[in-house]
């Protein structure tokens, strides 16, 4: 069985001087939400074996926070994948198919609308939107290889958002 964590980057900003979408950093809320979600995952032993992230600043920063312990020590291997920026479901599936089959779980940190469309495609659910710093966990009970991940083969087992914990 394979387990895929599908995460959308945390809340970003358009600060003065940032000219491109690619270079948008996280804002304060985004940094706080990413730390909150990372701590939640770690405290519940929901730690992926690897994280693959879009190279866009907001996604990569989110992924780095997810890969680190509260102390700042990086604990989860993190790989930047250019194809995860400005992509679609099909290219994201190509990235997923390249994950080493020895790994049981992986996290993809990317952007909407792709993350939401990916969840709906893989699990046959109809989520309206994965919000910023939202994390969906999908399990693939019949998959022994990441190459077997395809349409409607997953089961949505969890959907966490910062709003679940910020009340």
Describe the sheet with the most strands.
Answer: 6 strands, mixed
H/E series, N to C? EHEHEHEHEE
Figure out the total of helices. Answer: 4
Give me the CATH fold name.
Rossmann fold
Q: Using only CA atoms, what is the Rg?
A: 15 Å
**Which ranges are low-confidence, i.e. pLDDT below 50, for 5 or more consecutive residues?**
none
> Which structural class is indicated by helix and strand composition?
alpha/beta
User: In which range does the helix fraction lie?
Assistant: 25-40%
The CATH homologous superfamily corresponds to: Phosphoglycerate mutase-like
Write the CATH architecture name. Answer: 3-Layer(aba) Sandwich
Instruction: Give the averaged pLDDT, no decimals.
Output: 94
Q: State the separation between the terminal residues, measured CA to CA.
A: 34 Å
Beta-strand portion reads 15-25%
Strand count = 6
Number of domains: 1
CATH class: Alpha Beta
What gross morphology would you assign?
globular
Order the strands across the largest sheet as they lie in space: 3-2-4-1-5-6
Structure in words:
The chain has 167 residues and is of the alpha/beta class. It has one domain (2-164): Rossmann fold (3-Layer(aba) Sandwich). 28% of the residues lie in helices and 19% in strands. It contains four helices and six strands. It has helices at residues 28-43, 57-67, 89-97, 114-123, and strands spanning 2-8, 51-53, 78-80, 105-110, 135-140, 155-160. Strands 3-2-4-1-5-6 form a six-stranded mixed sheet, with helices on both faces. It is globular, with a radius of gyration of 15 Å. The N and C termini lie far apart (34 Å). 38% of the residues are buried.
